[in-house]
Specification:
heterodimer, A: 223 residues, 11 strands, B: 459 residues, Ubiquitin-like (UB roll), Porin, 3 domains, four-stranded mixed sheet, 12% helix, disordered N terminus
Chain lengths: 223, 459
C-alpha cells in the first residue's frame, strides 16, 4: 500500500515536473525590468530579459543563420513626450563548425561556448547608453521605454532598425499600372490596427517601461 | 662576444620570423572568417495552406532546394513571397538540417479570407477617385488568381467594375484577365472660356492575354465590347455673370460645337488592342522612385463599329537615374488617333498628368486633338526620413507639351511650365502631396500658377 502510494507520488511529481519543464521551454521571451542609471554625462539603462533568445531565434541560430535583436530606447518626460532616444542592434550568430555563439552590438563582441552562456548574457545585457544627460530636465520625472524586436534571421546591416523604428506601414494593397495608381486597405486590418495597436500586431515585439525616475536622484553606476 | 652577439641576432631573427608569421596568422584569421562556408537549403516545407498547393507556394519563392543561401537572400525571398499578396500572412521558421550547414525552411502561410477594402486611386485621364467599397476574393482556387468587385466615385469618374486576373503562374510567362465595367466619365472642356463637363456613360466587357519574354518585355493582346453614350448636353462648371450662366446650367444642344454634337448618341464598338511593354526599372528606390532603369510602352487600338472604323497609337517612355542624392526622372509621351475618333476618344492636353502649370485639358479644344506629345523632366529627392522611403520628399519639374489636329502643328507652339512638388508619406496610402506649376509660356486661362493635389508620383 505504501509502495503504491510512493509510486503514485513519484509519478505525480514527475508529471508536474515535466509540465513545468515544458512550460519553461515554451515560455515566451519578455522584458522583465528596465533600470535607468547614470554613467557620467550619459543616461544608460540595464535591460533584464527572460527566455531570450526564444524558440524561433534559437532554431535559426542552430541552423547556422544569424539572428538579430533590435533595441529601441526612448526617454519619456512627464507628458510622455520622447526627449531622447537610442537604437541598438544585437547580431547573434552561431558558428556551426566551431560551435560558438557570437554576439555583436553592445560594447565588446562576446563569444559563448554554449547556449547557457548566451542566455545568461541576454538575461542581463550590458548597460546600454540611452541619451546624454544634458537633454533631460534633471528635476522632472522621466521613464525609459525599451522595445525589443526579434529577427529570427538578421536583416542586412543597412536595413536594421528600419520599418519598425520608423513606424512605416506595409504597402498593403497598392497597385500601380502605367496610367494610374490605386491604394486600398483591408477594413479588417484597420480594425485590428486600432484595436490592438500597430506594434502589438507584429509578433516578436516586446516593450517595457521603467519606473519613474528623476535624473538628479539617479546614482552613478558602479564600476 | 661575437658568438654571443651572433646568437642574439639569430634569436632576434627567429623571434621576428615568429612574430611575422603570428601577425600574418592573426591578419589571415578574420579574412578566413569573412568567407564562411555557405549554408545550403535542404528543404522547403509549407504549413497552413488549405487552398494553395505547396508547389504554388514554392514556385513563388525565389529560392530552390539545393541553393546556397545567406540571410539577406532568405529575407528578400520571404519578402518576395509576401509581395505576391497571395496570403494573409507569411511567416517562416529556419531549422537545422540533416547535417551541419544545411537549413530546413518552413513557410507558414495563412490563406486570404474574403476581404472588404476601401481606398483611393487615380487614372491619368480621369483624375482622383475614391474606392468606397472593394470586395476581394483572391486566390480562391489556389492558383494565385484575383477576383475583385469594386466601386469608384470621383469628380471625373464613377462606376463599378468586376475584374478577374491571373498573374503569371510559376514557370509560366502567360497572364490573362477579364473585366466587366459600367462607369460614367466626365470629359471637361472649355467653350468660350467657360469650363463645361460632358458626362459619358460607358459599359464594357473585355479580356486580354499577356506574355512576358526575354526578362524585360511583355506583349498583351485583347478585345472588348463597349457601349458608349454621351449625355446630350454638357453642364457649366463655373458661373459667368456677364453671360448669365450659373454653375450647373446645361449648354443648349444647338450651341454645342459641331464636332461634339455629331458624337452625341449611343455607339457600340469592338475594340482590339495590342500592347508592347519594356521594363528594366530597378528594385532600389530613392524617394519612392526607381533609382535606375527604363519603362516604355507602345499601345495600339483598333475601334470597329457600324459608324466608322479607326485606330490610334500611343507611346510612353520613362527613365530614371540616381543623381546627387535624388533621382532624375524623365517621361516622354506621344500619340496619334484617327480624325474620325469621337471627342471622348481623342487626346486632351493639360493638367496634372501632362502639363502641370495649366488646368486639366485646357490645352486642347473642346472636341480634343488627334495628335499630341508631352514630356516631363523631374528631380525628386528625400527631404525628411530614409532616402528610399522618406517621410517628406520634394521635387522640381519642367513639363512641356503640344497637341493639335491633322497637320495643324505649329512649331514653337508648345506650352512649357515649371514648378515644385512635395509628397508626405501617409500610412497605407503611400504618399499624398501637391504639385504647383507656373507657366513659362502663355497660360490658356491666364493663371500665374496652378496647384494640383496628388497621390504618389505622377510616373
Amino acid at each position: 500500500m505504501l509502495a503504491a502510494f510512493v509510486r503514485v507520488g513519484f509519478a505525480a511529481v514527475a508529471v508536474v515536473a515535466s509540465v513545468h519543464a515544458a512550460s519553461v521551454q515554451a515560455a515566451e521571451p519578455s522584458i522583465e525590468d528596465v533600470v535607468p542609471a547614470r554613467d557620467g554625462q550619459l543616461l544608460t539603462c540595464f535591460v533584464h530579459t527572460a527566455s531570450l533568445p526564444g524558440g524561433r531565434l534559437r532554431s535559426s541560430l542552430e541552423s547556422g543563420l544569424p539572428a538579430a535583436i533590435e533595441m529601441a530606447l526612448d526617454v519619456l518626460d512627464d507628458r510622455n513626450h520622447v526627449v531622447g532616444s537610442n537604437r541598438v542592434s544585437l547580431r547573434i550568430a552561431f558558428d556551426l563548425w566551431e560551435q560558438i555563439f557570437h554576439v555583436q552590438g553592445i560594447g565588446d563582441d562576446e563569444r559563448f561556448d554554449d547556449l547557457d552562456g548566451l542566455q545568461n548574457y541576454l538575461r542581463a545585457m550590458p548597460r546600454v547608453p540611452v541619451t546624454p544627460f544634458a537633454t533631460l530636465n534633471i528635476a522632472e520625472r522621466h521613464r525609459v521605454r525599451v522595445g525589443l524586436k526579434l529577427h529570427p534571421v538578421a536583416p542586412r546591416e543597412s536595413e536594421r532598425l528600419s520599418d519598425w523604428v520608423e513606424g512605416r506601414e506595409s504597402r498593403d494593397g497598392t497597385t500601380r499600372d502605367s496610367d494610374g495608381r490605386e491604394v486600398s486597405v483591408s477594413l479588417g486590418r484597420v480594425i485590428r490596427f486600432f484595436y490592438r495597436g500597430a506594434r502589438r500586431d507584429d509578433a516578436g515585439e516586446l516593450e517595457r517601461l521603467s519606473a519613474w525616475f528623476v535624473p538628479r536622484d539617479l546614482g552613478e553606476v558602479e564600476r | 662576444m661575437i658568438p654571443i652577439l651572433s646568437r642574439t641576432v639569430r634569436e632576434l631573427r627567429v623571434r621576428e620570423v615568429v612574430t611575422v608569421i603570428a601577425s600574418l596568422a592573426v591578419l589571415a584569421a578574420p579574412a578566413a572568417r569573412a568567407q564562411p562556408r555557405p549554408l545550403i537549403l535542404e528543404s522547403i516545407d509549407v504549413v497552413g495552406n488549405t487552398r494553395t498547393s505547396a508547389d504554388v507556394v514554392r514556385g513563388r519563392l525565389p529560392l530552390s532546394v539545393g541553393d546556397a543561401i545567406d540571410p539577406a537572400e532568405l529575407l528578400v525571398a520571404i519578402d518576395a513571397l509576401r509581395s505576391t499578396d497571395l496570403f494573409e500572412s507569411v511567416d517562416y521558421l529556419a531549422t537545422a538540417g540533416s547535417e551541419r550547414g544545411r537549413v530546413r525552411l518552413e513557410l507558414r502561410v495563412e490563406e486570404k479570407p474574403f476581404e472588404f477594402r476601401f481606398g483611393t486611386g487615380y487614372r491619368d485621364l480621369d483624375g482622383w477617385y475614391l474606392i468606397p467599397a472593394q470586395l476581394r476574393a483572391d486566390n480562391r482556387l489556389g492558383h494565385g488568381e484575383q477576383l475583385r468587385l469594386q466601386a469608384r466615385i470621383g469628380y471625373h469618374v464613377s462606376g463599378i467594375e468586376l475584374l478577374m486576373r491571373q498573374p503569371p503562374r510559376p514557370h509560366s510567362s502567360f497572364d490573362w484577365g477579364v473585366s466587366l465595367a459600367a462607369e460614367s466619365l466626365a470629359r471637361p472642356y472649355f467653350l468660350d472660356g467657360i469650363e463645361y463637363r460632358h458626362e459619358v456613360a460607358r459599359g464594357s466587357l473585355g479580356g486580354q492575354v499577356g506574355r512576358s519574354f526575354a526578362g524585360a518585355w511583355r506583349f498583351e493582346g485583347g478585345a472588348s465590347l463597349q457601349g458608349v453614350e454621351p449625355e446630350r448636353v454638357p453642364v457649366a462648371r463655373e458661373d459667368d455673370p456677364v453671360r448669365g450662366i450659373d454653375r450647373g446650367d446645361a449648354l443648349p444642344y444647338e450651341d454645342l460645337p459641331v464636332e461634339i454634337a455629331g458624337d452625341v448618341g449611343r455607339a457600340e464598338r469592338t475594340i482590339l488592342h495590342g500592347v508592347l511593354e519594356y521594363d528594366t526599372r530597378g528594385v532600389r528606390e530613392i524617394a519612392r522612385t526607381p533609382a535606375s532603369g527604363f519603362w516604355g510602352r507602345v499601345r495600339s487600338e483598333l475601334f470597329v463599329s457600324r459608324a466608322a472604323d479607326f485606330g490610334g497609337v500611343t507611346v510612353d517612355v520613362r527613365g530614371y537615374r540616381a543623381r546627387v542624392g535624388g533621382v532624375v526622372a524623365v517621361r516622354a509621351r506621344g500619340g496619334v488617333v484617327s480624325p474620325v475618333a469621337a471627342f471622348y476618344d481623342r487626346f486632351h492636353l493639360g493638367g496634372l498628368y501632362t502639363v502641370r502649370g495649366v488646368p486639366s485639358q485646357s490645352l486642347s479644344p473642346s472636341e480634343g486633338d488627334t495628335r499630341f506629345w508631352c514630356g516631363s523632366l523631374e528631380f525628386r529627392a528625400p527631404l525628411v526620413g530614409r532616402p528610399n522611403d522618406p517621410r517628406v520628399a520634394g521635387s522640381l519639374f519642367v513639363d512641356a507639351g503640344d497637341a493639335w489636329t491633322g497637320d495643324n502643328a505649329t512649331p514653337g507652339d508648345a506650352t512649357v511650365t515649371a514648378g515644385w512638388g512635395v509628397r508626405v508619406r501617409v500610412p497605407w496610402i503611400e504618399s499624398v502631396g501637391i504639385d504647383v506649376g507656373m507657366p513659362i509660356t502663355d497660360s490658356p486661362v491666364g493663371e500665374s500658377f496652378h496647384a494640383n493635389a496628388v497621390l504618389g508620383w505622377n510616373f
